[in-house]
Amino acid sequence: MKKFYFLIVFVLFGYISSAQIVDTVNLQKHPEVKYIDIGGTWVSQKLMVQADYGQPRPKGMFPKPPFVRDENGQVINFNGMMEALSMFDKWGWELVTLYLFTGDNTYHYLLKRKS
């Protein structure tokens, strides 16, 4: 029985960990996206990563931030930026550079799709 539960958890983790969804756009299905810029927001000791791939800015009074989400639409919470960078590496992205965005004093990470 333990093997069965382990198999289910392993399959679900593999399914969830394959996500590269920014809001509703799955980046795996858009090979024309070569670069993305990511930054994080800390909420309750977890890091919520936002990604910019050149998408149109959301309209409205309270636009929805472009957080990285799983296939179920849930925001993926990371323990820190190193975990997020490791996950993006697993998804086929590599770090190009990082820079300090002076508008809000946060670091942003420029990633490119691996060849």
3D architecture notes:
With 115 residues, the protein is α+β, with helices and mostly antiparallel strands. It has one domain (2-113). The chain is built from two helices and eight strands. It has helices spanning 2-16, 81-90; strands spanning 21-22, 25-26, 35-43, 46-52, 68-69, 77-78, 93-101, 106-113. Strands 6-4-3-8-7 form a five-stranded antiparallel β-sheet, with helices on one face. A three-stranded antiparallel β-sheet has the order 2-1-5, with no helix packed on it. Strand 3 and strand 4 (46-52) form a beta hairpin. The radius of gyration is 15 Å and the shape is globular. Residues 2-17 have low confidence and may be disordered.
The percent range for helix content is 10-25%
Beta fraction: 35-45%
- Alpha-beta content class: alpha+beta
Q: What is the count of distinct domains?
A: 1
The 3D shape can be described as globular
User: Compute the gyration radius: what is it?
Assistant: 15 Å
Record field, number of beta strands? 8
Strand order of the largest sheet: 6-4-3-8-7
Q: Could you state the order of secondary-structure elements as H and E?
A: HEEEEEEHEE
Uncertain residue segments: 2-17
Helix tally? 2
Describe the sheet with the most strands. 5 strands, antiparallel
Distance between the termini: 42 Å
Mean pLDDT: 81
